[in-house]
Task: inverse folding
């Protein structure tokens, strides 16, 4: 048979992209006694967003011995995500951020529980996804998600650490201001690594060394007050489709909030009916 004499071409597979050097995880200088480590071991947190800040925070908490970490991010790793990231490598391109980060955290500390989710957090899934966690850390960089996380934490009586542009917010929406109360107080600054600061505040919340209702910006700490006109002050908070509402009412990003504060004043007021079903 002629066919038996033909030589098959060997398929040449492209060699996997080599790993690149990763930046080192900054040293927070934590000094934890046995009681502090036990408190951390019994605590679960929920991190929304597995970008640079979310990755750094999750790694710090895993290193400190947090008991469990939930991760939420529906994005796939792209080439632009590699440079400067503490975890992602060229070989990870096309894979889910939350899954790759979860594998890395388990390798760092096999004793912790890690629960990755590839779903985008929305009004219909965030409460179930974060219910077992006592602190939510919002690193999404997305305006709709900031409102969502704040309102969900209000309803579940959970504390919230939020990174918004150059601000780190520590909130307890049930006892103090929510995100809508203080949206017009956001500022621009040249603050350093927000992930390290947010991690320290999260650990201090666990250890009872920090209180909610404050904002870190430009190296300063500002106290935040509840807005008496906000729906959280009136107990009217319910979850809605924030993306649909914001699509017609306000800018898409927190950066736009800082540039156009007048455009979002209605978000801080009960007149906006943000907690109702006013989606027309």
Result:
């Amino acid at each position: 048979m002629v066919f038996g004499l033909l030589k098959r071409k060997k398929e040449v597979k492209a060699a996997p992209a080599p790993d690149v050097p990763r930046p080192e995880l900054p040293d927070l200088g934590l000094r934890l006694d046995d009681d502090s480590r036990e408190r951390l071991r019994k605590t679960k947190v929920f991190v929304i967003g597995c970008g640079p800040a979310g990755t750094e925070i999750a790694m710090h908490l895993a290193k400190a011995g947090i008991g469990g970490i939930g991760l939420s991010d529906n994005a796939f790793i792209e080439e632009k995500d590699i440079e400067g990231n503490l975890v992602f490598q060229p070989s990870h391109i096309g894979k889910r951020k939350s899954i790759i980060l979860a594998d890395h955290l388990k390798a760092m500390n096999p004793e912790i529980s890690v629960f990755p989710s590839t779903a985008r957090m929305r009004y219909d899934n965030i409460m179930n996804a974060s219910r077992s966690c006592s602190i939510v850390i919002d690193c999404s960089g997305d305006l709709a998600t900031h409102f969502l996380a704040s309102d969900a934490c209000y309803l579940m009586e959970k504390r919230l650490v939020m990174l918004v542009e150059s601000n780190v917010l520590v909130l307890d929406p049930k006892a103090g201001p929510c995100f809508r109360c203080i949206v017009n107080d956001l500022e621009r600054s040249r603050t350093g690594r927000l992930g390290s600061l947010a991690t320290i505040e999260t650990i201090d919340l666990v250890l009872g060394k920090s209180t909610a209702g404050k904002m870190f910006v430009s190296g300063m700490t500002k106290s935040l007050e509840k807005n008496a006109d906000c729906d959280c002050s009136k107990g009217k908070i319910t979850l809605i489709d924030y993306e649909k509402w914001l699509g017609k009412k306000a800018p898409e990003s927190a950066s736009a909030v800082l540039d156009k504060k007048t455009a979002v004043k209605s978000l801080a007021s009960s007149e906006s009916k943000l907690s109702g079903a006013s989606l027309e």
